[in-house]
Amino acid sequence: MLRVAGIRGLGPGRWISAALRRPGPDPGPGHSRPPPPSPAWRGALTRPTVRPRSGAAEAQRAAAAALLAALGIFQRGEKPTEAEDQIILLIKHAKLSAIKGELEDAERFLHQALHLAQQSQHNQAITYIYCQMANLAFLRGDLLSAEKLFKASMSQLLGSGAQQDDNALIEMSLKLCSIYASTERDNLAVEGYKWCIETLEEKIRREKATPEEGLSAEEMENMQLLLGMSLDSCARYMLIRGQLLLATGMYEKALAIAQDVHGETHPQTVVLMNDLATVLERRDNHQQAHKLAKRASSLAREIAHPDLPAILSNEAAIHAHTGNYTEARQLYKEALEEANTQGNERLIERIREAMEELDARTRSSRDKGEERQ
Is the entire prediction scored with pTM above 0.85? Predict the structure, then answer.
């Protein structure tokens, strides 16, 4: 359970009400962009769901039905109307544009889809499109628009009869927390993280207590992953705030969930292992930090993790901090080779700067006879 000095608990209704009624200030051009939840947690991303209906008569209807099931915005057993077909096509174009990085085109397609959904008064489609528009604005760093759109999505979802602890509402609340954190509304950010985590923990406890009446294995797994994503996001925020003990506990819980659901060799598990090592090192728990960092880098090599250079660099920094400069230098060199292979110029520059700093510390320590070989 999240405990932060000066923060009193809000019930689900009070958090949702507070989140929806508070206007967001314009962050301005100098605001920091919030880190979105890691894509490796994507199994936890939720939306209103329906069961897909069985086969359509012709290929076009079959394709439309498959997309409908994937989007989860129309009722089972319904055949798409002409307007719904157009909405589906526009959303599909928006998704493809976003994948290709054509964000302005994606936004334009979503606005067209929203107009059609509003004309046909299709509330589920409106809710879904608002959420997609919010996600797009969030990824672009347009925090003011993202906040307004997430709140509109939440209002739509609540108006359609969703419970206040619905997973989709929790996910949107989690993204609002990142926005609040980035715009220095710290109390609301902390309260929101607290609500997301405690609500999910309570839901999971409740489901485990009555397994015969509970969720399917897939639904339960998605809820656990959403909890892991919440813990991960909050842990990063606590780390920024310097609340290392809280960050440690959350990273430990998030790592346990990732190991249980994904397994040890999953990319998200490796990232969390690396992040936990960083926090432990900052708390001067050098032995455990070294152990986790070494395991994370070993797994990252094994699975060709896309973040391998950063993970190696992190292990190197831990060694450098404890005076093991020889091992640190070897790891930095390996990290630099991997970063050069990836063509990651920003990371290459950071690693070179770290190596220059290490060389300076090495020269200083040699003068004092302090370097450990």
Answer: no
